[in-house]
Amino acid sequence: MIRSMTGFGSVAETVEGEHFGVEIRTLNGKHFKCHLRLPDELIGLEPDLESIVSGRFARGTVTVTVRYEDRSEQAASSINAPVLKRYMDELASLVDGEVDPVGLLHLPGVLVSDEQDDRRDRCKSILQDLVGRACDAVTSMRTVEGREIELDIERHVKSIESAMVVVEERAPEVNELYADRLKQRMKAMLGDIGADVREEDVIREIAIFAEKSDISEEVDRLKGHLLRCRELTGGGGDEPVGRTLDFLSQEMLREANTMGSKCLDAQVGRHVVDIKVSVDRIKEQVQNVE
């Protein structure tokens, strides 16, 4: 089974007046890269959350956005009465009349909120659960898209196999056609000087041509690559196969190029072009496979 590298997942939850939201987006990439966007109140939880994400995804660029809003009673800051009284006493000795305490609330130390560490500890387990659930949603989406990619790759594999059947049937005929053309050319050339065509010379030239144009090894290797491609795309494991498929598509293209350069027959060449087009489509698809 293969999975795409593009996906999206979003979850939200409110716990005792504190609202949490987690959104995960994944895009294709050669390696794993995680970007975490946390509100200032939760800075410091990056390693805990990234470890969850890295354990779920092997490749791709992952962007995790965390939203947090405290709507509970704890969001209200407490007034530090001793500090406020000291400000008022000092101002009272400097100005005439009463001092309005409301205007002093913005001064340092007057309002006291929860300790940052306490807030992070309280939110850590909640966010870990939400990130895990968001990863589940992303994985589900990537799996669905992976099935579509698998079907498309299978279509191209079948197209390659159909072209290879024609190539295999045509290859022996190419040698026979070359032998006939060679005999005709040699008779025409030697006939002008009154010499006869020696059969051993014809056989030697045909053998040399057959050796240079033999594509049986390339055909066998390409068949093996197609078999391995089916094993990787149709397997039931959860291991990422994107890198292996990428390498495999490169090898398939190399074999097709060699076939085209060794066998110069026009009919074979047309089908080799079809094979290369299908391999190129496979290569494009596997760029988005985890």
Can you describe this structure?
- This protein is α+β, with helices and mostly antiparallel strands.
- It folds into 3 domains: 7-74 and 116-143, Ribosomal Protein S5, domain 2; 78-104, no CATH class; 144-286, Butyryl-CoA Dehydrogenase, subunit A, domain 3, CATH 1.20.140.
- Helices cover 60% and strands 14% of the residues.
- It is built from 7 helices and 6 strands.
- The chain has helices at 46-56, 81-92, 116-191, 199-213, 216-234, 242-262, 266-286; strands spanning 7-15, 18-27, 32-37, 60-70, 78-79, 111-112.
- The strands form 2 sheets. The chain has a 4-stranded mixed β-sheet, with helices on one face. A two-stranded antiparallel sheet has the order 5-6.
- α1 (46-56) packs parallel to α3 (116-191), α3 (116-191) runs antiparallel to α4 (199-213) and α6 (242-262) packs antiparallel against α7 (266-286).
- The longest helix is centred in the middle third of the chain and has 76 residues, at 116-191.
- The mean pLDDT is 82.
Largest sheet: 4 strands, mixed
Number of separate strands = 6
Please report the number of helical segments: 7
Order of helices and strands: EEEHEEHEHHHHH
Mean pLDDT: 82
Question: Beta-sheet strand percentage?
Answer: 5-15%
From the spread of the alpha carbons, the general shape counts as rod-shaped
Domain count: 3
Strand order of the largest sheet: 1-2-4-3
CATH topology of the largest domain: Butyryl-CoA Dehydrogenase, subunit A, domain 3
Q: Which structural class matches the secondary elements?
A: alpha+beta
The low-confidence parts are none
Give the terminus-to-terminus CA distance: 11 Å
CATH architecture classification name of the largest domain: Up-down Bundle
Q: Mind telling me the CATH class of the largest domain?
A: Mainly Alpha
Helix content: 55-70%
